[in-house]
Specification:
Elements (H helix, E strand, L loop, with lengths): L2 H15 L17 E6 L7 E7 L14 E6 L5 E5 L7 E7 L14 E6 L13 E8 L2 E7 L8 E2 L3 E3 L4 E3 L4 E4 L2 E4 L1 E5 L3 E7 L5 E8 L5 E8 L4
Antiparallel strand pairs: 1-3, 2-3, 4-6, 5-6, 7-8, 8-15, 9-16, 10-11, 12-13, 12-16, 14-15, 16-17
């Protein structure tokens, strides 16, 4: 074997043993961003964060197991993501430190990766599905609105306790809806498998209202409607 070929094989062997290839991550969370760049060197451009250090011969020599390239991922607006290194971007706080061989050596128990979670998780809440409404007008001294939804369970109600998921939290007031930005107490005159009838206080002006309906298994539907002026 020639000295040149032997040298290439030796570099490849060292790189393979030292983690230049891509081992599986040991992080429990999954990255949610979109990969935007693979750059030479250890630094990512603004708006991105490192998710893997590796060997790329286009970036120079990988002798002695040097990782000379970085995989950079676009920073998300919310949620939870994993990154290499000790710090989180603005608006995110560290929730766990751990070892990830994609981020380099973990010798001597070094934690070289971090889980970042955004500080205002409510911005991550997906919007609930929209229900339909039928305005029945004013009679009996109150205004009547029928709310229709497609829940797969019983015991619906207007308003909820707390919506809490793995990525966000949101609170609605029990027994209230919001009309023109202000809470309005409502009554419930009928509930069934797919319908809730509510009553609102009479109003001499039209109102733009939002109501939320929940079932006992924490499904949610949003209702947007406008009530005309009551006589």
């Amino acid at each position: 074997m020639s000295k040149r070929l032997f040298g290439i094989c030796l570099v490849w062997l060292v790189a393979s043993l030292s983690g230049c290839n891509t081992p599986d991550t040991v992080g429990e969370e999954q990255d949610t961003g979109e990969v935007t760049a693979a750059v030479c060197g250890p630094y990512c451009p603004g708006g991105t964060y490192p998710t893997r250090y590796y060997c790329d011969f286009n970036c120079g020599s990988c002798a002695s197991g040097i990782n000379n390239a970085t995989q950079c991922t676009a920073s998300p607006a919310c949620g939870t993501f994993n990154k290499c290194g000790p710090g989180c971007p603005p608006g995110f706080s560290p929730t766990r430190y751990y070892c990830d061989f994609n981020c380099g050596s973990c010798a001597s128990g070094i934690n070289n990766a971090i889980v970042c979670t955004n500080d205002a998780q409510s911005v991550c809440c997906p919007p609930p599905p929209k229900g339909s409404t039928v305005d029945r007008g004013e009679y009996g001294g109150v205004h009547h609105v029928e709310l229709y939804y497609n829940f797969s369970s019983s015991n619906p109600s207007v308003g909820t306790l707390n919506v809490v998921t793995s990525t966000c939290s949101k609170t609605f007031n029990i027994g209230q809806i919001v009309c023109d930005g202000a809470p309005v107490s409502v009554g419930v005159s009928h509930t069934s498998f797919s319908q809730i009838n509510i009553t609102l206080p009479r109003s001499s002006v039209a109102r733009n209202c939002v109501a939320f309906s929940s079932s006992q298994n924490y499904q949610y539907v949003e209702f947007n409607f406008t009530t005309p002026p009551d006589p």
